[in-house]
Amino acid sequence: MTTRLTIVAGTLLLAIGGCREDAVPVTEPTPPLATAGGFGRRAGVNMLTLGFGLLLSLTLAPVAQAQICFRGHPRPRCTGFAILEFSGAARLNQKAGPSDQTDWLFSWSGGYLHSVGARSALGAAFKLTADGDGHRYGPVLRYRHWLGPTWSLDIAPGVFVGGRDNFAALRFPSPTADLTINWGDRLGLTLGANLLRRESGKQSWETFLGIRFGTWLAPLAMVGLGVLVGASWN
What we know:
Elements: H1 2-19, H2 32-65, E1 67-69, E2 78-91, E3 104-115, E4 120-131, E5 134-146, E6 151-160, E7 162-165, E8 174-183, E9 187-197, E10 203-214, H3 217-232
Helix pairs in contact: 1-2
């Protein structure tokens, strides 16, 4: 709306200024017919300028209203949005050995989603997962379906392409996926599964359930976790 008003005001001032008699310096007397003709031509040109400005304001208004956001919203508010997430989750099944049998794992994700409809967004992210055994990382596809102005459902299938395990050599690529219900891109409940492939030929699924922190809550949650770990370190 602001863009439209600015363009309209500018073109109005341009048109009015161009039509004033004192806008064009006169060095010698001009025949009446020539003066009238020149004024008419200037008025016609400035009317075209005014019309073009109005048309431009109508064209740019939808573009100005939609933007790339840091926190996700459906169209028309956002054409796309960045994602920055940190998740802490508990295992739902026992991890196959050799392992330290850590009950928790953590993951970080960063990427971008582009709105492809009134209630859908599609994009990609980079995911890093870590636990007491080591870490794994790789790209994931991201699909979001808006359930309303605030609530949304995220689906994130992908593959780990690298990483390290402290107890056994891993094989890559290995699939990963999670399903998350989000509230305002701030908090979410996530359910996921990772496949562990070992060089020995053994493989096993690990499932987990946890909480996801988004946007500015993600770095705050990471700092809070670091403080807790530091305070409990002996």
